[in-house]
Amino acid sequence: MQRLVWLCLCVLAMADIAMGAAPKKPVAVPFGRNYVPTWAFDHIKYFNGGSEIQLSLDNYTGTGFQSKGSYLFGHFSMQIKMVPGDSAGTVTAFYLSSQNSEHDEIDFEFLGNRTGQPYILQTNVFTGGKGDREQRIYLWFDPTKAYHSYSVLWNLYQIVFFVDDVPIRVFKNSKDLGVRFPFNQPMKIYSSLWNADDWATRGGLEKTDWSKGPFVAAYKSFHIDGCESSVNAKYCATQGKRWWDQKEFQDLDAYQWRRLRWVRQQFTIYNYCTDRKRFPTMAPECKRDRDV
């Protein structure tokens, strides 16, 4: 019996590795371990010893926070509960960004909506200061009812966006196609809640209803597993020492590709790779996308 249990556990462990899962659960730490408020400190509230925080937005200001360190590659995740009710015009963000004009950036932006209308999750990738790589999806759950995990896996081979461990987007390293890839600019992690009613909801047609404010988004499980570096560093050589730098994380596996295809078929509402009106010529990196 003990041998059977051991064999079952081994099979499950091997399945986890084959599916590209992290070898261990992300370790959440209190907010103050890795993060500091960025502006409007009075619009941030702390709960449970700093393991949970709330950001608030009113008609005076929004607020945000950033990591203390800068990172080259890693796995970064956070659990977020979005602004409930009428959130039109608001944007709740979780992203990585470098600090210069030709910056690199990896974005989650959650676009609010009128009561009863679904949130839109917009992702984007900037390399060398060039963005315009937006993709938008509806989520398969109500992100205002409970916390959900949003994470980024970033190594030399790919950037993967996850929602509750489901891959929703992959940006492969396409340097061989002439596309820049983030590899030598350390990035800080940022989160913010702000007013963007000039564009966020129906292209700016729906304005923020300040009578419904203040608007509140909640964050917890502040997880960082990256290669910490100074902002002046040109590279960070992990040499395969970190789990996210191993061979099995250089690509999605078959199961993850199926999950990504499910998201694209069922929930994608915009993909720059298929927008021929805006981009008559397909971006080179899109040719590496299996489903385009």
TrEMBL record:
It comes from the Eukaryota. Residues 1-20 form the signal peptide. The keyword Hydrolase applies. PROSITE patterns: GH16_1, GH16_2. It is found in: Secreted, Cell wall; Secreted, Extracellular space, Apoplast. Contains at least one intrachain disulfide bond essential for its enzymatic activity. Keywords: Apoplast, Cell wall, Cell wall biogenesis/degradation, Disulfide bond, Glycoprotein, Glycosidase, Hydrolase, Secreted, Signal, Transferase. Its main location: secreted. Belongs to the glycosyl hydrolase 16 family. This is Xyloglucan endotransglucosylase/hydrolase.
